[in-house]
Amino acid sequence: MNDIYSHCTLCPRRCGADRYSGRGYCGMGAVPTAAKASLHKWEEPCIAYKNGAGTVFFTGCSLHCVYCQNSVISSELYGAETSAEGLADIFLRLQEQGADNIELVTPTHFVPDIAAALEMIKQRLAVPVVYNTGGYELVETLRRLDGLIDVYLPDIKYHSPELSAKYSNAPDYFGHASAAVTEMIRQTGKLRFNDDGGLLRGTVIRHLVLPGCRHDSIRIMEWIAENTSPEQVLVSIMNQYTPFDFIPDAFPELKRRVTKMEYNSVVRRASELGLDGFTQEKSAVGEQYVPDFDLSGIV
Ligand code: SF4
Question: What sign does the CA torsion over 105, 107, 108, 109 have?
């Protein structure tokens, strides 16, 4: 039993839910739940470099962004229950299938079970463990993972509190995300690669450019340049924002794609600042990047 689940403060919501008898803001009780575990090729070339990342998509999310492409699992809570022991088996099975790494997607609300699973098998796990998060993290929760995670893959979604309040109901997002990234870099140190270009250690910051938000994106690039080093951090500027039909009418500005000018202006500023990392072709936009959640690898 993980006591923190009885009054949960694992993420910045600190909603205090008793997850043994109910669910928190993230939608999840105390049983680790996931919607898919499989090899996944649509990641940055240093994350999926050979056979694909061994992704485990966890159900639930503490952010609930209005434009979320994985809303089936983040809000509709599709998934199957497992356990810390079950997670350990899932990670080892992915390794046996040839996964380039074990990639934990939206794992924050299950950190105690994930840490327990990784402790159980750390002598048998030969591939890096990647922690893929929306960036809304508490430093004290990340410290539970110190020594267990090799690569952090956080988003920094917003700089402006107005934007993070409007789209993710999290006016305190940037303060938490920036502190989290600082802690992640402290844990991972300098970037380290294998001979195939696979990332063994380090932090990759992702940023999805949103329609009408390029000035906010540029402020994020400037923060990264001022507060991190290219020896420790890669930046992935994403161009796959998709205006799904489910986006509420209250956000008409989100019902279009990002223009070439918007995306290129962010990439240009990142380049001027000397940031190193990845950009994405316009063809990346589209629903084909939404995984087919079918419980494979979980049940
Ligand atoms: S992880 Fe979930 S239950 Fe825990 S504080 Fe965050 S939203 Fe609440």
Answer: positive
Q: Whose CA is nearest to atom 6 of ligand 1?
A: 11
Residue 93: give the domain boundaries. 28-289
Which of 75, 109, 113, 169 to mutate to test ligand 1, by most ligand atoms within 8 A of the CB atom? 109
Chain segment 230-281, per-residue pLDDT in tens: 999 999 999 999 999 999 999 999 999 999 999 999 999 999 999 999 998 7
The pick from 6, 8, 58, 75 for probing ligand 1's pocket by mutation, whose C-beta has the most ligand atoms within 8 angstroms, reads 8
> Partners of 204 in the beta sheet?
234
What's the 141 CA to ligand 1 centre distance in angstroms?
11
Amino acid at 97: Q
Query: Does residue 266 contact residue 224 with C-beta atoms inside 8 Å?
Result: no
Sign of CA dihedral 35, 39, 43, 48: positive
CA 290/CA 72 separation, integer angstroms: 10
Instruction: Check if 24 has its Cβ closer than 6 Å to any atom of ligand 1.
Output: yes
Whether residue 17 lies inside any domain: the answer is: no
Domain of residue 233, CATH code:
3.20.20.70
Please report, in angstroms and rounded to a whole number, the separation of the first and last CA atoms in the chain. Answer: 22
In DSSP terms, 36 is beta-bridged to 57
Within-domain flag for 21: no
Cβ-contact 106, 133 below 8 angstroms:
yes
Is residue 203 domain-resident? yes
Residue range 85-99, pLDDT digits in tens: 999 999 999 999 999
Q: Is 109 a member of any domain?
A: yes
